Fold this protein.
Amino acid sequence: MRTRSAIFYGPNQPISVEDVELQGPKTGEVLVRVAATGVCHSDYHAVDGHINARLSPTVMGHEASGIVEEIGPGVTAFAPGDHVVFTIRPMCGKCKYCSTGRWNLCDGIQAKRGHMVDGTTRFKKLDGTVLYMSHALAAFSQHTVVAEWNLVKVRNDVPIERLASLGCAVVTGVGAVVNTAQVKAGSAVAVWGCGGVGLNVIQGAAIAGATKIIAIDIAESKLTFAKQFGATDTVDASKNDPVEAVMDLTGGGADYTFEVIGNPSTLRQAFDATCPGGTACMVGVPPSGGEVSVPMELLFRDRRLIGSSAGTGSPRVDFPWFIEMYRQGRLKLDELQSRFRPLDEINEAFEDMLSGEVARTIVRP
Ligand SMILES: [Zn+2]
Ligand SMILES: [Zn+2]
């Protein structure tokens, strides 16, 4: 079928929106009409070369929700009309990690980067050139074909476009707090970086019952969003030393700190701002080959430095409770969607993100 998609041709080049050819679903695959796709910093990390560029040309996008239009052979868990949310990691359901509730670490599905598991892709340019698929999802597209292990079926009485960010920003942020760090009620939390994921760390901390939630950023607009999402205090790191500020506000260090930027110096700050027995949790995507050093006396104070990948999430367990919390007004999803744009404005959508004016821009393909 003919569809329309946003294509990445290489670092520092504009994204191109084009009509393309999409093959139908093969065994175990599902054709989805995409309702909404969040514009995520990890898409941009390839565009600006922060991480080694993915294959190109690639149909971009990974944070999305949609409606099933057609199922391939062997698919039993989904039917046309089902509402679905994409997951950024496949879930085989059989490996050691899936079997122990660490679905984010699943290693049971081996696919080449940018490809479906059979080593091919479902997208071609109209001249026949193969198009790779970001995260095997290719969600900046009116339609896409996704393996069923990358989908979670959700209730269909919640507006499907509101759920676009569950599979990336929400699970990565809220999951880092609730699943990875397991923040306790009454804790003091500090968060470096208040973009889409950082705001979800902040609202995750509020949901977990943290009583002090310190938001740190260099953009005033992002600190304003942070307050909406539950921050009790804000620190403008362009004007103040954030480690000193956290030490002052907490009387000796935060119980949990989260670094949501992916920068060695802010990760070190997050570590330095923990109290004895505290935990620094790394959430931001690091640059390729990045390293951080921490003082070896970490042992004397029982401090921990941990990583959180995709929120240590089990999407088929986590997404339903996220949606329930949203229905109860306790998880902010509407407020996360500051601006909607059509697919043709994908480059403007990235500019929105870089400007810091939006919590998230959502593309409606
Ligand atoms: Zn993402
Ligand atoms: Zn698995």
The domain at 173-310 is CATH 3.40.50.720 (Rossmann fold). The CA atoms of residues 32 and 68 lie 4 Å apart.
